[in-house]
User: What shape does this take?
Amino acid sequence: MAETGTLHDAFIDELRDTYDAEKQLTKALPKLAKASSNPKLRQAFESHLEETQGQIERLDQVFESLGEKARGKHCEGIAGIIEEGKSIMEEDFDDTTMDACLIAAGQRSEHYEMAAYGTLVAWAEAMGHTEAAKLLQQTLDEEKAADKKLSGLAEGGINQGAADAARAEEDEEPEAVVAGGTRKSASKSGRR
Assistant: This one.
């Protein structure tokens, strides 16, 4: 009969998954920064890349504190989120709309990481891994701060700029012939 896994086994598995997620993000964040037209958004992605590199080092310390080898296990979740981000960058959006979409992509990864680190902190505390819990909590706090920064940029004008650009484009559309041969402008035909 096979031995049943323990919470410790699940904890190590989740650490490896998260380790790989952070490594994948070190490749994705520069692409998000490059695709950003807003300088503050570009800087947010670039500074989070530096944080992410520090988070990997912190995970190395967590593995060491547990007497485990630091290695990743492919994280399908973040791979999917990164793939969604790549498809967004292939869209033909105006600059402000692209920035709004890049924020959404960035926040998807932040929320995924916040869920992972929240679980890791809780499990580390439950098992009495005090040093690991402290290190993981530092990273969780950084992920929350990065998410808050992205929200601030979105709410501080990027989302509104994208919405204003969409309205301006609708208002410039030529009149269209609708059912019954009546002419109406596109913005007044229910397209809002």
Remarks:
- The longest strand covers residues 175-177.
- Strands lie at 175-177, 183-185.
- The chain has one domain: 7-188.
- The two ends are 62 Å apart (CA to CA).
